[in-house]
Amino acid sequence: MLAEATALLLASLTVLTVAGPSGAPQGIRPAVSAVSTAAPAQAPSVTSASAGANPAVAGPGASIPTAHEPRGTALLDSLVARAAPPATVSATVTGQNAELSAAVGAAVDKASLRQSMRAVLADPPAPRSVSNWWSALDGGEQLRAALAAPELVGNLDGVPYAVRDQANRTVLRETIRDLELGLVGGTSRALQTRDDGQLQMLYSIADALGPAEANPQRQLITLDVEGAGKASIVLGDLMTADYVSYLVPGMFISVGGNVVEWVDTAARIYDEQVSWLALLDDSSAPAPRDDAIAASAVGTAPAALAAAMRAADRLAPEEAVEDERPTVATVAWIGYQTPHLLNVGSLDLAYEGRDAIASTLLGLDALRGADQPHVSLLAHSYGTTASMLALSETPARVDALAMIGSPGSPAATVDDLKVTGAVFVGEAAWDPISNSSFFGADPGESTFGARVMSVAGSVDLITEEVLAGSTGHNEYFSPGTESMRNLALIGIGQAELVTDGTERDALRTLALARPGA
To answer: In 3-state terms, what secondary structure has residue 224?
Structure first.
């Protein structure tokens, strides 16, 4: 039964792929739980779409021909009817998973089923089509679809992020369990070595997700448990954040070896952005809350004024009002296979990255509808090339692009990139990749048209913090660097506060801050 249901899902998505993009994004918001091999999966809470949900808006690509929609919807109706009897929808996920697992064991060739799903994910439907398909299902149908094929649902751009997170956590938890049982059961040494390596990679993802009470919340919106793997972990809420920053990695960044470090980097960017937004909000307040402290700060540097305001917050908590500051979300994105020394000279993986980045951005566009956030790509090394391919050869667009340690651009100038705001480039001393122009034009050349982002180190005029410089190819994301400061500011749309290493930096005070941040 499950095989037939999943086959129908695959067939439905194939129809949607041919049909083209569509709109009307809506979805469900399940509870988010931490990954644990001991605890059972938590059922997504199925709710109807909110009356205040954002309407679909026209995005890149044409609308799906209506003649195709009934076909896809009819096939999906068959899927949800066969995946689980309606009477069992309110049962626990544990019970349903047990029933589905039994069905799979009795009637499904799991390897063949997974191969079919992976084939769809390798060439997925347009995110707007996926969003349209998902919104056409009622809550019970959405739940049954997620239970029938979590590996597929969890990786489809256009499905709500909370649903994908729950589906991917289920796959992660169950794959860990199966691998652990397989190692205990005893297999050949070669299989044990392979499975142990895969298991360590999955443990790393679980570690990167952190506890259920992690603040900010973390969601697993991409998961590939095969081979070198793929994983994307969000800090914050992509459905409500005012500013969204995607960290795009380059050579040698792998899930098994670097996902924890990559999420830590995203967390530092998140914290810096939150701090800057708080400082900008405080500096734009009409009057300080503590007259005595404000008076002591008159005529002092902006950093002293900011410190006085923060002190006032601590001394007068009773005067605090509801925090309505803008919010951020950062994504530790490892959504493509990054290169190593033996294949870094080829663009093959950059094209894979191009398609994955484009799908990611179009998925966010489809889900956010009329309430679009400020979106930035913060790309490193080979990831800059993949990002520029996405922004020059697909309908995807962003508000800002920052490139550090770039090996070259397939685009001739910034005018070839779909970036509505500023494009920045940072190049560290002793970085052998910068200025190599290996894959085309050097983004650091003035003729390319990008703005310089200093990574050499300085003293922040606003906060009076001493910022370290970055050296070589792999220090751009080091804590306390000028590079990290500037990346954070680019992600919240404060291009005029980004330092460039010239005398103009002496003029970069809060007076230049973009209003509304």
So the answer is: strand
